[in-house]
């Protein structure tokens, strides 16, 4: 199957929800939550991410996580990730309970396309304090795509992880996972990255972006958001409407896309130092806000 067909399939099988100008969404991807070891790229940003997510929870946002949320190549089971970042999962649980959490499949958490795996590992967890199984995300369904459809304008916003445009990470994900487990995890501790990842390989990154842009053009310039490459993208109205939220494993920050008041913005959260030397987590607007409807052409 070609990358174009795989992207179309992600679109056709996407979960669809309606939204309006009062809806608020925060879009993150590529969090790569790990086990908090030296190989856990996310560990540096865990406080920043937790603080940002709490801000969005308190302010009524719906959380769209566009894949690679959990790092299941380096970590064989979800349990070690869960206990390393339980505060984050407690927060995600609240989003889920209120029907404000949508999670997509990425190549690092492709096992979530297996419903039995999800039921076994994500529906509930063992609470070490109470000694009982407690609900985590009971009934959660991971999809390849998510489409937001505007109630009045019918404008569609299509979200996917993006590995559908990347053969080695779609068809070859089991081989890549194997290489990461036996080889790259060890090298990563010494600062050497995995060369099959488009996040670490510019040529691959450009190819993946080209394929998705071609699909967008062939599909009537559909407003599309993905992650996977870890490279934030925020086009001007009139350009190909290809957005990327970036990742949560940048060395010192996390990036994401906010949708609020019918507008989209690219934001980053990072740790800044105040005049008196206090470390403070702050939100910085990088691009926008830009009216969604202006991308409708
Ligand atoms: Mn990915």
Write a short abstract of this structure.
The chain is an alpha/beta fold. The chain has helices at residues 3-12, 46-58, 78-84, 86-97, 115-122, 167-170, 173-188, 202-218; strands at residues 15-19, 25-28, 62-65, 101-103, 124-127, 132-135, 145-150, 156-160, 223-226, 242-244, 253-260, 263-273, 279-291. It has a single domain (3-295), classed as 4-Layer Sandwich (Purple Acid Phosphatase, chain A, domain 2), CATH 3.60.21.10.
Description:
The protein has 297 residues and is an alpha/beta fold. Helix content is 29%, strand content 25%. Strand 7 and strand 8 (156-160) form a beta hairpin. The longest helix has 17 residues, at 202-218. Bound molecules: manganese (II) ion (MN). The site of manganese (II) ion has 7 residues, from loops.
What's the CATH architecture? Answer: 4-Layer Sandwich
> How many strands appear in the DSSP assignment?
13
**Strand ordering within the main sheet:** 4-3-2-11-12-13
Strand content: 15-25%
Query: What's the alpha carbon Rg, rounded to whole Å?
Result: 18 Å
Classification by helices and strands: alpha/beta
Largest sheet: 6 strands, mixed
CATH topological fold name: Purple Acid Phosphatase, chain A, domain 2
- Shape field: globular
């Amino acid at each position: 199957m070609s990358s174009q067909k795989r992207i179309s399939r992600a679109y056709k099988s996407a979960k669809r929800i309606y939204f309006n100008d009062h809806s608020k969404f925060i879009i993150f991807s590529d969090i790569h939550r790990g086990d908090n070891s030296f190989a856990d790229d996310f560990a540096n940003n865990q406080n920043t991410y937790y603080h940002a997510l709490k801000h969005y929870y308190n302010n009524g946002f719906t959380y769209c996580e566009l894949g690679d949320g959990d790092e299941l190549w380096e970590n064989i089971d979800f349990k070690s990730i869960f206990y390393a970042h339980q505060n984050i999962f407690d927060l995600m649980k609240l989003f889920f309970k209120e029907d404000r959490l949508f999670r997509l499949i990425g190549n690092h958490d492709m096992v979530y396309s297996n419903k039995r795996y999800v039921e076994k590992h994500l529906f509930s967890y063992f609470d070490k304090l109470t000694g009982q199984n407690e609900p985590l995300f009971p009934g959660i369904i991971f999809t390849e795509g998510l489409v937001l459809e505007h109630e009045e304008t019918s404008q569609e916003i299509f979200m996917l992880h993006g590995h559908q445009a990347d053969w080695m990470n779609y068809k070859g994900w089991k081989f890549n996972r194997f290489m990461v487990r036996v080889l790259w995890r060890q090298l990563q501790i010494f600062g050497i990255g995995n060369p099959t990842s488009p996040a670490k390989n510019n040529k691959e990154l450009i190819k993946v972006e080209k394929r998705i842009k071609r699909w967008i053009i062939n599909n009537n310039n559909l407003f599309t958001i993905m992650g996977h490459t870890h490279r934030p993208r925020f086009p001007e109205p009139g350009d190909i409407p290809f957005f990327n939220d970036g990742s949560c494993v940048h060395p010192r920050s996390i990036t994401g896309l906010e949708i609020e008041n019918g507008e989209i913005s690219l934001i980053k959260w990072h740790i800044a130092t105040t005049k008196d030397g206090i470390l403070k987590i702050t939100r910085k607007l990088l691009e926008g806000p830009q009216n969604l409807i202006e991308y409708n052409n």
